[in-house]
Amino acid sequence: MNVDELWEQANQLYDIGEYHAAAGVAENILVDHHDDPGTRALLAESLIGQFEYEKAETVAKDLLFDCPGWAKAHLILGLIRTRKGWFKAARLTYEMVLEMEPDNPEAHGNLCFVYYMMRDYRAAQAYGERAILLATNSSSALSLLAGVYLVQNKHTLGMETYRKAISLNPMNFEAHSNLLFAMELYEGYSLEDIKAERDEWNLVHAEKFYHARVTN
């Protein structure tokens, strides 16, 4: 394979969650193209997917040293800090991204999550709403924003937002599971409505969910 074919293979592996294999292909590319920023970024993201945060951080910091003005590199470092639970540090990193790219939807979405975890729900809502304006087809951003609405007792808005997330991606397990849980938790939903939603959840998600539980 030439380098373009390897790059395509690495991205395909990453997209289907084969992070270990994607990292291996990325490392093979870097043998002869050790300065390539895109491959280094993909390697860092693949390591994050394997929960190899220390290794990912080393790659990300080296990348930032060589490409200090690249927003993608800062986003990767911010994600590592988020995964580690370093929310204040992650916030500062994402804010730096917005100084470079004020309309970066990923940075807005990540700040929504960080502020949610810091229990600043108004800020989380503001960033979440901005994220979905910038990336209107992002099911994951909508799912996160729905949770922000619910924690503020904005039940109707939260449920509507979960349904929008599911309409964009029927396989969004988190959105569908949280929607079903909220229907069971809050008043105003009949047993028939809840049963119908549970049947739909089983139809879409049950096989994958129970398979994951058995194999893990």
Q: Which keywords apply here?
A:
single chain; 216 residues
Characterize the structure shown.
By secondary structure, this protein is an all-alpha fold. The chain has 12 helices and no strands. It has helices at residues 3-15, 19-32, 37-49, 53-66, 71-83, 87-100, 105-117, 121-134, 139-151, 155-168, 173-185, 191-215. α2 (19-32) packs antiparallel against α3, α5 (71-83) runs parallel beside α7 and α9 (139-151) packs antiparallel against α10.
Question: How is the topology of this model organized?
Answer:
Elements: H1 3-15, H2 19-32, H3 37-49, H4 53-66, H5 71-83, H6 87-100, H7 105-117, H8 121-134, H9 139-151, H10 155-168, H11 173-185, H12 191-215
Helix pairs in contact: 1-2, 2-3, 3-4, 3-5, 4-5, 5-6, 5-7, 6-7, 7-8, 7-9, 8-9, 9-10, 10-11, 11-12
